[in-house]
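Q: What structure does this chain adopt?
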Amino acid sequence: MIPLRDDIPSRTFPVVNLLLIGANVAAFLYQVMLGPLLPRFVHEFAVIPARYFHDAIVAGGRLEQVTAPDLVVPLVTSMFLHGGWLHLGGNMLYLWIFGDNVEDRMGHGRYVVFYLLCGMLASAAHIWTNANSRIPSLGASGAIAGVLSAYLLLYPKARVVVLLPLWFFWQVFKVPAVLFLGIWFVQQTFSGLLSLGVASAQTGGVAWWAHIGGFLAGALLVGLFARRERRPALRDAWWESR
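A:
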């Protein structure tokens, strides 16, 4: 199922969500322009789990000492890097559809902090489940998973318009967000549990536990960042009942 839009209109202009999308696109375009220098750039700014458990790692045929910036900086920079156009496009589609409503409920400042925290906690989950991996992990999926979790809890009655392939035809359906996002999380969890028995949980190029960690982080943090819905005053309620 490919999401197209939801049925919850945003009451405020999602400036932070648009800036996050713009930052991800700009970072990817910069990656494209790097050409042969890209592998080194990714090595420096993506999350490599082995760095967090060793004082030095072998990279590019040479031994590299691990410093404090090597551990802290990638936790932020990795969530703005992507492995290809499809990786970027899929993530930005989900952020575009669901992020504006979460920003609406949290406010601009709280939303950006929430997003970054979810992304960093998602990386922490990936690091913990892949302690010896030297494969760079990058992408906004973990942070966006936190946004999806927050959306699910803040708008449990929302519906999502999706594009679904049926044999040789594409059909448009409106499904409950609980069903759509619930299926997404079950898929991530199932794949994550299966990956525990292999050398790297980044099987197939997907960091499943980053998705799971980001989703759980969003569920735990949303109560701290979401503002309460404004209820109409008694006088307003009286007029509305007329």
